[in-house]
Amino acid sequence: MNKLETGTEHLLAAVEDGVGLIAFNRPEARNALTGEMIGCLNNVITAMEQDTEVRCVVLTGSGGSFCAGGDVKGMASKNDGLGTVSQKIKTIDQAIHKQRLDHKGTAGRLHTMAKPTIALVDGPAAGAGMSLAMACDLRMISERAFFTTAFAKVGFSGDYGGTYFLTQLVGSAKARELYYLSERVSSKEALELGLTNWVCKEDELEKKGMELAHRLANGPSVALGYMKENLNRAMMGDIDECLDMEATHHIHCGQTEDHKNATKAFVEKKEPVFKGE
What we know:
alpha/beta, 2-enoyl-CoA Hydratase, Chain A, domain 1, Lyase 2-enoyl-coa Hydratase, Chain  A, domain 2, 2 domains, seven-stranded mixed beta sheet
């Protein structure tokens, strides 16, 4: 495993056999996000998106928690209404600009990068933590995991794309309920609602999650990247654009060595080996 320097001890990162692993590492605060962590997360996600050796990205947390959202204690101590502890942020416009960049560089990039992204959720995924989990393509959670938007409890409207992702996953009416009331969603309910793809025992989460990640990393990465773009465009609701992009991407996939080797392996009744070419 190749460990990566993230810029902070509160965020861990490594690459192993095509899988990029990112872990929030502030267990004493249930991995609540600081401004430093967000900046480093942005940099790490960008690096993994650009690294051709990384073919699947996993986001998780350490110490029995995924992420409790923003650092509310830090917000309370600053209490300037700008949502940041940076001394360089002096105006509302500067704060909005920074927040937009943070959103696009983290949740936005997890959602749009041409690689599968997986959230492995143990314990709480609250506020921005829930949003980041939903920004990933797939979610696998433990039986003790739970989700909560939490924003209403601290007088926030929500961030990191949560309103968009939650509406897509559970529908508008349920998303409004979960945002307005900030109630906990158990692992059982999360599975029923479609908030997660799988629920497993806590001691099996890492093993099963990494098995899934390596399966995707060893898949036809060109085709998976195009699938992701197709599916993202389908969420926008424009059927003509969706049909056109599917046609374009299908033809592109037909030109790849992965496709040619896979069809040959199919005829020969062998397992295909994908190289992302």
